[in-house]
Amino acid sequence: MQNPYHQPTHPGGPYPPPFAPSQEPGGGRRISRKRLVTGVCVLTALAVAAAATGVALGVRENRERASAAAAASAADPTKPLVAGWKTVINPKHGTAFDVPPGWEVLEPDVFSGYEDTKDKEKVLIGHTAPAFYKSQWCSIDANGDGQVTDVRLANVGTKGAGGAKNPADIAVKEAPTWVYAAYTQPDKSVVTADKPVEYTTKSGLRGSYVKARSSGAPRPHRCAGDGQAVVFGFKNSRGDLVSWDFYGRTGVPGAVDDALIMRILSTVRLAGDPKDPGPGP
């Protein structure tokens, strides 16, 4: 069977459907009118931290400062590696990473994922303890029924990777799935992915990442369009396979660029022992 994701630099078999989290798919953020987060995003808890305006890209830190920050993180993972940024902790998997101050950091038990547009009972992929960037970047009542869909500009979080063989395997499988689930359903042919790249974060955490993207995604409404994903696979302190997942729109004003994505990725680190024994999101 032909690979549903065109990977010219990494041929392989078809991507198996990821496990479905225990949470039921459903509505997302609801404000003055009924609102559903695109995809659809499932929020099992909704406690959004207050977000400052703007995105602090900062300046390049010298090696000594970066090393000192990494050492401090090892002792206190709640302290951000980038001054002024926010730390996102997922106690379920024992992981942490930082995001710029303009991002919304949600509670650790919030699950954010995407259902299959052809089967509303099937969750394609999702993660917990997410951080959103411009969560109401674009809003639309696609069906004219009063249910307003909020489309985020970008999202990042972590998830378990039960069934994966190794960190590279996680990244190869999940990166194109995020792009497909968030941006191109039901068309897999417009999704491409790179080969996995070995990577070590500032804290010394080793793993592999894969970048995937779409070109020519369906545009059923004005908020729709192409996107990209970066997935970094690694092991937590218990030896469980885990992934850090970024996905966001491309080709639009304010889109998160590659430099910022990699800077966020560089802050991924371990944060104590995992609290949950399961491999789920």
UniProtKB/TrEMBL annotation:
* Superkingdom to which the source organism belongs: Bacteria
Q: Name one Pfam family in it.
A: DUF8017
Coiled-coil region list: none
> From start to end residue, where is composition biased (Pro residues)?
11-20
Looking at the UniProt entry, the stretches that span the membrane are 36-59
List keywords of the entry alphabetically: Membrane, Transmembrane, Transmembrane helix
List the residue ranges of the region (Disordered). 1-30
Show the ranges annotated as biased composition (Low complexity). 1-10
Sequence ranges assigned to domain DUF8017 in this UniProt record: 78-272
* Name of this chain's protein: DUF8017 domain-containing protein
Organism for this UniProt entry: Streptomyces nojiriensis
Tell me the classification of the organism that encodes this protein: Bacteria, Bacillati, Actinomycetota, Actinomycetes, Kitasatosporales
